[in-house]
Amino acid sequence: METLHTTGLSIGYDKKCIASDVNLALRPGKLVCLIGQNGVGKSTLLRTLAGLQEPLSGEVAIGEESIKVVDRRELARKIGIITTDKIGMSNMNVRELVALGRFPYTNWIGKEELEDRAKIEESIDLCKVNYIENAKLGTLSDGQFQKAMVARALAQDTDFILMDEPTAHLDIVNRLDMFSLFAQIKAQTNKGILVSTHELDLSIRFADELWLMDFNQPVVCGAPQDLIESGAISRIFHHEDYEIDLTIAHSMIRAKRDK
C-alpha cells in the first residue's frame, strides 16, 4: 500500500494562503491526529488532501502519482473523507447510509453485488451499529450517527480515511469509544487514518503520530511523547493565564488492563 503525501504544499482560499510549504506523509496502518486551534486550517488541509479543494501550489500524491491526474472514481477508491457537512437525509436508515460508501464500485443505478453487500455488512459489524441498522438517521444520537458515518467510510474500502472532527458534540464516553474504534480499524484493516480533532488527551493516548498546525508556522510532526517533551504541544496551546499540564496527559486515559 502506498503513502499519501504532500510536497511543497500551500493551502488556502481565494489566493489567501493559510499554510505553506507543507510536507507530510500519511502511511498505511497509522493513526495520525491533526491538532491546532480553531481557524488554523485543519479542515482546509483535509479537503485538499482528499482532492476536494485545489491547492494554491505544491502537490498531493499517492505513491508517485499526483492526485490531480487520478480519475475521480479511482481517487474515491483510494481516499475516503468524513466532513462536518450536514446530511439532510433524515428518513434514510443506517444501512442505506453505509451502502452509499459503495458508490465508487456500483454501476450507475447503484446495484449491489455480492462483494458490495459483504463490505457493507463487514463495516456495520466492525462499527457495532448492527442494532440500529434499520433506524432512521433522524432518530440517532450524535454518537450513533458518527459511527454510522465511519461505517460508510469503511464500506468505501479506501486505503486512507480522513475525518474532520468526528467527535465534536460527543460526551467523553462516546469520544473514547470513537477513538478506540479508530485504533481497531487501523489494526484490522491497515488503513492510514487521519483525524482532525481537539481531543488532545485522546490523541496522545491513541495516535501513532501528531500533526501540529499553528498560525504562520510550519506543521510539526512526531510521536505524541516526543512532542510533549520538546514543548511543541505547549507552544501550540499557549495561554497567558493558564497552562496545560501535559505530564499527566498520557495517563489520563488508559486501558483497564494497563492498571
Brief summary of the model shown:
This protein has 259 residues and is α/β, with parallel strands linked by helices.
Strand order in the largest sheet:
7-8-9-4-10-11
Number of beta-strand segments: 11
How much strand content do the residues show? 15-25%
pLDDT < 50 stretches? none
Shape: globular
Supply the key terms.
259 residues, alpha/beta, five-stranded antiparallel β-sheet, 11 strands, 33% helix, 21% strand, nucleotide-binding, iron, Iron complex transport system ATP-binding protein, Siderophore_ABC-ATPase
How would you summarize the topology of this molecule?
Blueprint: E1 4-13, E2 16-22, E3 25-26, E4 31-36, H1 42-49, E5 57-62, E6 65-66, H2 72-75, E7 79-82, H3 94-99, H4 114-126, H5 142-155, E8 160-164, H6 172-189, E9 192-196, H7 200-206, E10 209-213, E11 220-222, H8 224-230, H9 232-236, H10 249-252
Parallel strand pairs: 4-9, 4-10, 7-8, 8-9
Antiparallel strand pairs: 1-2, 1-3, 1-5, 5-6, 10-11
Helix pairs in contact: 4-5
